[in-house]
Amino acid sequence: MRKDEYCSFCWRSKKDALLLVEGKDGYICDKCIQEADKILQAEISRRTKNRPRKNLMKPAEIKKHIDQYVIGQDKAKKVLSVAVYNHYKRIFTQGSDISDVEIEKSNILLVGETGTGKTLLARTIARILDVPFCIADATVITEAGYVGEDVETVLTRLLQAANYDVEAAERGIVYIDEIDKIARKGGDNPSITRDVSGEGVQQAMLKLLEGSTVLVPPQGGRKHPEQNMVSVNTSNILFICGGAFDGVARIIEKRLDTQPIGFKKAEDAEMKHDKENFLQYITPHDLKKFGLIPELIGRLPVIAHLDPLTTDTLRAILTEPKNALVKQYQKLMKMEGVALTFDDDVIQYLAEKAIELKLGARGLRSIIESIMLDAMYDIPSNEEEIKEYHVDKALVISKLHNFTLSHLKVA
Q1: How far is the C-alpha of 174 from the C-alpha of 154, rounded, in Å?
Q2: Which residues partner with 134 through β-bridges?
Q3: What is the pLDDT of residues 352-388, one digit of tens each?
Q4: Which of the 8 DSSP states describes residue 405?
Q5: Strand segments (E) across 121-251
């Protein structure tokens, strides 16, 4: 045996090893090969744990799953289910088709009033697919060089959600909220003055949405020359943007009311009747009038509107989903050994109050929290004496008096 016939990793000699494999500049023994295989398998497992399932659910199955958590909004659910299915189908088939047809990414724009479920839809979709998910707020983003956050910090949150696994992050979902707040000032007319949180941010977001390699500061904040950057390819990241677009309904109404002289089509006459929900007729032209630049609109080709919430919808939101608010508070009380019950007219009253205060579904939690605060404070200290807590309408009215006054003042 030559002097140099030993493992280059553990220094085990040839006589002490079952096998010694010779390489170009050294050897590796059977033990080190086994250890290397364990490291390789662990790395493969780490990289694949956050990937969407290969047996991707069909659109109908995705919608059925969303139905368990989100009440109503059937049209938006269908649009989302199809768009998400096609997006991940596109990812899975990359490189398997030798044809010259390249399927482009289709990001999604959700348009709906505050509290109608835009964020919940995006979060539920990510949970179904088991991919990294993050929420970013468009209002804090400014152009480079101004106080605020760079556009790339949106991807920092996604990296953190993926535990800094770049490959997993590159298959994730980003929800950008309040996208309407970066509309160009003056709508369709270009602004002469500097608009650091409007049109400039829209321009900066184009590269992010279309699919390109972006250098991301892993800890967030502004970029600086001495900072280590992480390279992230956004080609397979699904961006879902949402906004209330307050005022776009007037733009739509004006467009629908502008009719040429002569006979109107039957469908046009029918459209004019539904004045409670003009968002269902939204077009890219309306978004351009509102203040989004054409380039950004083109990178958000899938547009879904969310219907305004009705009293019946809010009643269902309170009681029907898996994570319904009433069920959540009943579970909290059950942990204290207390059975919590609500009268039917209480549920109706809460739904009507949310409509009156224009709080949407998100405001329901604030309302119930104000009702249950005293009970949740007292019961843990008296759990031996209290076994049941009943909420009737009289109790709700007394608890909500100050809550209603404060919110009416804000409105």
Answers
A1: 8
A2: 174
A3: 888 888 777 878 888 899 899 988 998 888 867 888 9
A4: H
A5: 133-137, 173-177, 213-216, 230-233, 238-243
